[in-house]
Design brief:
The protein is an alpha/beta fold and 107 residues long. The chain is 20% helix and 45% strand. The protein has helices at residues 7-20, 66-72; strands at 4-5, 25-33, 37-45, 53-57, 60-64, 76-82, 85-91, 97-98, 105-106.
Length: 107
């Protein structure tokens, strides 16, 4: 079981943490939300919880809670530029369907 970052995503996170001046890594998770049922969560982490699972990918720690890992296993977080927009993209092999707006998904 693992969650990874692409080289572009890792560089973006590392650069932001350097500007921020602190942080252990990023937390990826899911929450119940949206029209398809689940939505991604992404936040910077300064401390881990006892039950957290920690993965290292391209030099960045990725922290995931055990409940979220069931939905995120095998996911790669990428940082993409599409036209004038840029942002994180979750490449999740577990997704069966997603809503039209792209904000939520079903596993």
């Amino acid at each position: 079981m693992a969650v990874t970052l692409s080289a572009r995503a890792a560089k973006h996170v590392s650069d932001f943490m350097a500007k921020r001046g602190k942080g252990l890594g990023i937390r990826l998770g899911v929450k119940t939300s949206g029209c398809s049922g689940m939505a991604y969560r992404l936040e910077f982490v300064d401390e881990t919880e006892a039950e957290d699972l920690v993965f290292e990918s391209n030099g960045v720690k990725v922290i995931v809670d055990p409940k979220s890992l069931a939905y995120l296993d095998g996911t790669e977080l990428d940082f993409v530029r599409e036209g004038l927009n840029e942002g994180f993209k979750f490449n999740n092999p577990n997704v069966k369907d997603a809503c039209g707006c792209g904000e939520s998904f079903t596993v």
